[in-house]
Write a structure and sequence with these properties.
The complex is a heterodimer of chains A (about 130) and B (about 425). Chain A is α+β, with helices and mostly antiparallel strands and about 130 residues long. Chain A has one domain: Alpha-Beta Plaits. Chain A has 3 helices and 5 strands; from the N terminus they run αβαββαββ. In chain A, strand 2 and strand 3 form a beta hairpin. The termini of chain A are far apart. Chain B has 17 helices and 10 strands. Chain B is of the alpha+beta class. Chain B has 2 domains: about 325 residues, Cytochrome-c3 Hydrogenase, chain B (Orthogonal Bundle); about 50 residues, no CATH class. In chain B, the strands form 4 sheets. Chain B has a 3-stranded antiparallel β-sheet with strand order 1-2-3. Chain B has a 3-stranded antiparallel β-sheet with strand order 6-7-8. In chain B, about 50% of the residues lie in helices and about 10% in strands. Chain B is flat, with a radius of gyration of 25 Å. Classes of the chains: A alpha+beta (about 130), B alpha+beta (about 425). The interface between A and B is medium-sized, with 26 and 33 residues.
Chain lengths: ~130, ~425
Amino acid sequence: MPRRKTGAVVPEMFRLMLEKPTTEAYPFKPIQLPERFRGKLDIDPAKCTGCQVCAIVCPASVITMVDLGTRKVGDRELKVRRPLFDLSTCIFCGECVDNCAFNALELTKQFEIATPNKADLVMNKAVVK
Amino acid sequence: MTETPDQQRKEASAGLMEYSAESLVPFGPIHPALKEPEYFKLVLEGERIVNVIPRIGYVHRGLEKAAESRPWVQNMYMFERTCGICSFVHSVCYGQAVEELTMFQTPRRAKYIRTIILEMERIHSHLLWVGLMGHWAGFDTLFMWVWNDREVVLDLVEAISGNRVHKSMNAFCGVRRDMPENMEDRIVERMKFLTDRARYYREIIDTEETMLKRTENIGRVSADTVEKLCAVGPMARYVGLRRDVRLNDPYAAYDEIPLDIVTRNEGDVHGLLRLRLDELIASANVVSYAVKNLPDGPIRVKIPPIIPAGEHSSHCEAPRGEIFYYAKSSGGRTPERIKSRQPTMANLPTALEMLKGQTLADIPVVLTAIDPCFGCMDRMSFYDTETNRKWTWSGEELRQFGINYYFPERKKKQGSLAESVRQKASHVERAFAEEP
């Protein structure tokens, strides 16, 4: 049978009264992000070869490949494809970044991506010239 | 002649008792005491609960079906999102079932890193639960303090994995990120801090009148009942049953790490509070040991996207109890069948047993005590309450129902199978029309 008394919380109450508030004053002060933080996805269009691996592994259907005509390699005509990103469904898992053999993709530290317009989150850097 | 108040009350209620009998009170699906929608039909006698009839399935998401149309690796991230609290253990359990189908072995270092994250997740889940118990017992100060300490372990998880809840750390046969360098001292020191805090909270719940009055002798069940109803995890351990997958069938690195399995004998909500805080201390010890004895070596073996044909199951000890995954492959890029069972599904019958005999005011405390996660466990079955008829659908019948539903004009050309499907479908439509 436990003892019945009150007062176990009192010392903690006094300790916390003398402490600073634990809440971070976020919009007014920048917050410290950890080194491995995963934020908004970014692509380097110069490095992308259109190999489609990112579109295959993405669990959230963020990436669709867009056909941009053809190009000639030797005497063969090859399709040119580039990824189009709809970041509104991104789950920030980083699977595309891990699987990109050309290091074209990167998860930045940018996290303030809330927007009233979903179209703002479509990233067409690699598609538009 | 004067009467005592008790006699007066008895006399006054004598007439009313003729009308008495049981009253039905609907509880949910949307209720402040439930964080997720679930419906309980309460049969009350006065203020006491006599019987509880649950109705589940409001947040059924069809994850098992969705898994059949996605590649194996994508399912890893989908099953991680089964639960918003114990997310990593789901991906580990699913991953283990798939790893057994391949011929690759998980490196030892990866197993240790998995263990560290799994135990940190347990600490975070138990702290969250203790805070919620404080909240429902009317002791919000405890809620604030505990959730503040929960930030400590979440910061560690974020430093290791890059995210607080959905870690995206697991991969088939390994983990995706190594432990950061020079974090050992920080983790050990933080774990010691959390151990001290857990001891302090144990003192609070043992001595504070507010907590004792709302938790002692509430939700009492016997060990026999719990054993009969097959409860798992803390719900089994709080009546003294030593049921823990980490002990009975070790996975990850639990076979190499000294583990303290906590059991208690109180069998009430207060015992559950003590048990989970003791478990938290045991988990902190496991994390400290694993960090100090982390082996060197690779963290991942890359496996091909096609999994060989076969079937395998796996089970893990989530913070709420045993979870179970079954994976069947036909040798393709997508699974043929995935089955998952979450601990709340196994614990719900015990929770209903705990509710019987309690007052209406104790429902939030007792329901929170089992640490419910209705979104994880919801599933669907067909049951006609009028005729007491139950039935299941085979895959072929389900397909036929889909065809009938989306292409009604095709109904004409069908044999006996489609006829039976249509018969069953009429029951379904009626069941959906009679929502409570």
